[in-house]
Amino acid sequence: MAVYLLFMAVSTANALDYYSNKSLGRRLASIAKQDPNLIRVKTIAQSPGKRKVWLVEVGQGAEADRKTRPAMLLVAGIEGNDLIGSSVTVSWIEHLVDQYESDNEIAKLLQTTTVYVIPRLNPDSAERFFAQPKFETSLNSKPVDNDHDGLVDEDGPEDLNADGLITWVRVEDREGDYILDSADDRLLVKADHLKGEVGRWRYLTEGIDNDHDEQWNEDGPGGVNFNRNFPCNYEFFAPNAGLHQVSEAETRALADFAIEHPNIGIVVAYGAADNLLKTPEATPAAPASGTAILAVGHGLEARATGRSRGRKPTSAIDQNDLSYYRVMGEKYREAIGLKKEMQGASCPGTFSDWMYFHRGRLSLAACPWSPAIAIELSKAGQTEEKTDPRFGGEKLAPAEAGGDEKVSDKSKTDQEKHNEQQRKELKWFDEHAPEAFSRWQPMEHPDFPGQRVEVGGYRPFSHSNPPAAMIEDIAARHADFVTKVAQQLPRIGIRKVEAKHLGENVYEVKIQMENTGFLPTSLAHGQTTREVYPTRIIIEMDNKCFLSGSRITNLPTIQGSCGMAEVRYVIHAPNRAGINFKVVSMLAGQAEGTVEF
Question: Quick check: is 522 in a domain?
Fold first, then answer.
């Protein structure tokens, strides 16, 4: 089936939709009732708008066991205006619960792994999708003096044409910075003064200048963007970043939760940031200073004194961790149907960056949907359709496929090149969701008497969320991906235990431990930050019994895919009773064994 069918209408039976905060809470409570021993729902914070931030924990077994197992944290709705992320996470939770009894892989996963899900971190922003008028913002409802005039939230948007939507206003004005797109006058392009272009239009959000400072809607309701509020590369005094790092109740609750659950080895964050569409940049691996081999197996090496540290904070993925991001990106693009890499996005203060650069965890950030992704998926579907089975599935030339010849970039004007992406997006909306763009309508604006003023443009939330008919298919693709991600966690186990009698109740003991998961027991950057403690083996006998070795031994990082570490002891065991031991890993869980004499 062609990939472009992702964007066709799906059956309305059991179709997913966007959740208000009340409906989200009811849905989570309904899922939890299906199996209280498998899923638990609680509140971890309350927003300034008095709305709950939900936490869902999925996993079988006692609480003490769930806290020590390998764990994954999935966070959606960080900006809040991306409602698709919440729908995806709820769909995944439902999938796990529904398939637990019938799918052996899902059952095994939830019996050996703990899954934490925060379906919506910013409920205040999301609720504006359901309010009247509908107004899109990524900020919570905390009152903030954005324009530093001593007043808060005094100049917000107004629904000038009473259509229930806060869209856009364009004003024909010689002081404007925009010109009309020559190919499609529904769009505006910022004038390029270096190319002699002269602005003719202002482009504003719908509303009036309430405080008469010749700025429009600059101090509306809210707030703080949570993906600017975390410590990594935090920008003080930046717009929407908050008074200080983790200044909000919601972000503080999320940060506290991550720190209080050190078994979290993988983070998936749905929001505007993205490091899966394209493999992120890496920094060259730092040389080791003083290397000592503690144990050998599967290319394993331990560094006795750690890696050299520079003075500047790390701003790129450690070279030794890059391959894991590359593999995860490939799995992600394959799952959603992309045939090539696309440009990712980031900004200072994101939750995903904080979890990697400060906490040392594999931290994946994904934008579940965007017009750019939709366009690429449509291209992928058209490419599949334009293959001819008579020639082994090879691509046909444009004329054979019935398509138009590709227009050379050299024949395009500078303006056509400049606004090409916007035109592609509008074309996609025209074909798949024409209601997303409101036609421009003339109006009388009190701030611009006698001037040509039009209201219209893209409707709120249209660029951050797909049409509702597409949610189900998008959610299914992402559910497959996050399930695969959870299956990549490291997992500690015992490979072999040997005891050799040397005489006089003295034994040489050899214990081999392995990592049956995909990821190592610690990323390279986890060692740099020292936020991931070394895996250790604990022998349950008195220190005086050790002739060689010690009761607690720290192990080097154990690589995934059955990487191995080995420890050896010489011990005095006069009663020849079995000796119990435990292997404890922060991210890979625990394993117990016995040395038999």
Answer: yes
Q: What pLDDT score does 1 carry?
A: 36
What are the DSSP calls for 539-552, one per residue? Answer: E-S-GGGEEES-SE
pLDDT given for residue 437 in this prediction: 96
Look up the domain containing 472 and give its range: 3-128+224-281+316-370+468-486
Q: pLDDT tens across 155-185, in order?
A: 678 889 999 999 999 999 988 999 999 899 9
Does residue 361 form part of some domain? yes
Q: How far apart are CA 3 and CA 374, in angstroms?
A: 10
Fill in the DSSP letter of residue 558.
P
Q: Render pLDDT for 467-480 as a digit per residue (tens, 0 to 9).
A: 999 999 999 999 99
pLDDT range class, residue 413, cuts 50, 70, 90: low
- The three-point CA angle 80-81-85 to 5° equals 70
Nearest to 540 by CA among 504, 509, 514: 509
Task: Please name which of 75, 167, 77, 56 lies closest in space to residue 124, comparing C-alpha atoms.
Answer: 77
At which residue do the structure tokens 């010690």 appear? 550
User: Which region among 63-72, 400-409, 447-456, 583-592 has the lowest average model confidence (pLDDT)?
Assistant: 400-409
Alpha-carbon distance of 424 to 114, in angstroms, equals: 42
Q: What is the pLDDT of residue 47?
A: 95
Number of compact structural domains in the chain: 3
**pLDDT for res 383:** 60
Q: Is residue 480 domain-shared with residue 331, that is, in the same domain?
A: yes
Q: Are 119 and 78 in contact (CB under 8 A)?
A: no
Q: Are the C-beta atoms of 202 and 192 separated by less than 8 Å?
A: no
In a domain, 541, yes or no: yes
Mean pLDDT of the 543-551 span = 93
CATH for 557: 2.60.40.10
Predicted pLDDT at 213: 73
Task: Please tell me whether the peptide bond between 280 and the residue prior to it is cis, using omega within 30 degrees of 0.
Answer: no
Q: Looking at residue 251, which CATH number applies to its domain?
A: 3.40.630.10
Q: Are residues 115 and 247 in the same domain?
A: yes
Query: What pLDDT is stored for residue 290 in this prediction?
Result: 36
- Round to whole Å and give the CA distance between 554 and 546: 16
Residue 219 half-sphere exposure toward CB, CA atoms < 13 A: 20
In three-state form (DSSP H/G/I as H, E/B as E, the rest C), the secondary structure along 115-141 is EEEECCCCHHHHHCCCCCCECCCCCCC
Query: CA angle at residue 456 from 453 to 461, to 5 degrees?
Result: 145
CA dihedral 386, 387, 391, 394 (to 10 degrees): 110
According to the 3-state scheme, what is the secondary structure of 140-152? CCCCCCCCCCCCC
Question: Which amino acid is it at 81?
Answer: N
Residue 297, strand partner residues: none
**Pairing status of strand 579-585 against strand 536-539:** antiparallel
Q: Whose CA is closest to 577, among 545, 537, 535?
A: 545
Strand, coil or helix: 112: helix
- Residue 64 sits at φ, ψ, to 5 deg, of -60, -35
Both tokens of 581, joined, read 């031991």
